[in-house]
Known about the structure:
The protein is α/β, with parallel strands linked by helices. It has helices at residues 2-20, 24-34, 75-79, 147-161, 194-218, 250-269, 291-296, 308-315, 346-352; strands spanning 45-51, 55-61, 83-88, 91-97, 105-106, 116-122, 125-130, 137-140, 166-172, 187-191, 231-237, 275-281, 299-302, 328-332, 336-340, 342-343.
Amino acid sequence: MDLLIGGGLAALTIYAAAKWQKSDKDKIQHTFRNLNYKVKDKEPKHFKTHRTDQYTLYSYHVPYGLVDDDKLNVLEKVLNKPVGVSFANQKLHIKVYKQTLPAKVSYDWTETEGWTLPIGKSMDGPVMHDFDKIPHMTIAGMTRQGKTVLLKLIMAHIINNHPDDVELYIIDLKGGLEFSQHNYEQIKTIAGSPMEAYNLLQDLSAEIQKDLAYFKSKGYTNVLNTNIKKRKFIIVDEGAELVPHKYMDKDEKQKLDYCQYALSNVARVAGALGYRLIFATQYPTADTLPRQIKQNADAKISFRLPTEVASRVALDEQGAETLNNVGRAIYRTADKHVIQVPYVADSDIKGRFVDYVSTDEKTTERRTDTVIFG
């Protein structure tokens, strides 16, 4: 009898625990109610659950008038699991992952087709960026969060994949410290100060005008529709240094204004000519991230930022303020991915590119070689 009573109590305990232990689906539905995520008395209605080895996908019919909302990001904390939220055709999809993103992803030097590169790893696998489809990119993020590592990854990948077809013009406004050690023949110029950037951008602007005239003479409208293989990347590390300050004299302010104008012109006009702009800044504001650059850069990446306001400037949405791992970023194009950016060390880059080391000193004085298009 005692054995029967003991077994019955154990079964009752298990039943009670199961009854009070809510499933992820139940927690999601309760979260909808707590957030008042509904239209009048109509809430999202669950219609399908799909399970895989990596995640469980919950799909919902959503009443008309209800759209995706940033407040649904709270689901990650409610479930204590990585969550992906997407919204399309009045259907809400909530993907609950079984594992978290790794804290570090190593770059493996795998070659890719065209002008694509592995921008990061998401919960759904590798995320690729194609610079021929989306030519310009902005990058934001506080110091030591991975911004410069990403810039070096881009540099290393495009040199490795296209050693004969790429030119790099680097504006390293940390005094040239980050990129001066990478002295490869594909890097035509490294500007280490705002005034050197001014000289470089004057030369590049003149070159853009020449390329524009050449395209017009040939009837070309886009480099993608020609046999031109060359691509020219302008990488700006810490664009905030190009913002004029009150203490500067009139000449300095005018030169910095010109730098911002020239970079905006690259973003607006030069993409079709084969120029690619990558503009990075630590703390994005209306001053440090010029509007023309942001509007014409359809790829936006942000590492951790200190405030929601900064995240909205960088990405047009919140989220970057919650990133909690070095190298973790939000990659936003038409879609949004939370990614871990691959890490590549300076020593690995140097070891791989020993044959490309140039004996020329990289300054803002342009080299004598020219590129003939066509």
